[in-house]
Amino acid sequence: MTAGPDRRARVLTAVLAGVLVASLAVAVTIGVAGLSVGEVWRILGSHLTGSATAGTEDAIVWSIRAPRVLTAALVGAGLAASGVVMQGLTRNPLADPYLLGLSSGASLGAVGVLLLGIGSALALSFALPLAAFLGALLALGAALGIARLAGSLSPTIVVLAGIAVSQLLAACTSLVIVVTAKGDAYRQVLSWLLGSLAGSTWTTVAIAAIALALVYPLLRLHAAPLDALALGDAAAEALGISTRGIRLTLFVAVALLTGAMVSTSGAIGFVGLIIPHLVRGLVGGLHRHVLPAAAIGGALFLLWADTLARTVLDPREIPVGIVTALVGVPVFVVVLRHARGTAWR
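Structure tokens predicted for Iron complex transport system permease protein:
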């Protein structure tokens, strides 16, 4: 009986994957530098064949555009997949990857590194993601600790604990900025807090790719338990599922993935909130269908949002977090309008 919906979901996911591949190929050719499509692909081909030559055009394509395009796709995929899991774990359609204060924790760690100054650019490229990642883990630990003190890891308690931790860490971040940020440091911090992929390098590509490769299979493995949790804890436990263990495992997994993504791009909103809703409308509510489709959809959304962010005000660019918010709010309103009168699934 499920052959039809399963086939439809697979076909739609395959179509999205094809569109993503085409989008990657097109996005890398778009930019403020006057490079033709042929020049861009010649440069990419020379690197893939080991015959690259140094030059300004080569640096623009290989060191700036290519890693930025790939980072955008990977971060979008990670945030969207995390959003699917958070909405499933909490049974809350407004949940997103930042619900447990992960964004605020990562921001505090990153802002601390940016304002302290870490010598060379190479050292900063490693210290910034690490500090943001550790900040996200700190937020997760605090949220789960508060929930344990309250005696429950139920969705409501965890969400409330996450909100409290988020507000506390956001206040700490603001205090650090007010006390220490000046001049260029302030602008750098502001850009990071708004969400920006301008600093993408092959290091950020590696960080995002490794995190996604390690965590996504675990999320996919728990698709069936997530479906059971949607029926309620009592129903899930009647099916032999340890709701407490599943929640703890997946909360930690989402924290690891989100922390890694935020560490490379800053806090980019709405990707993990709206993409899961849009995808459910296409492939249904089963998590084995929603997770891969959402990951691809998130990659597409952030890829084109960033392409718009770096070209719309040529030669200046705007933080991609602003673009995702400007696009995400009306899209979310439309999603809510279509969902009116129906149960969230």
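The domain at 3-339 is CATH 1.10.3470.10 (ABC transporter involved in vitamin B12 uptake, BtuC).
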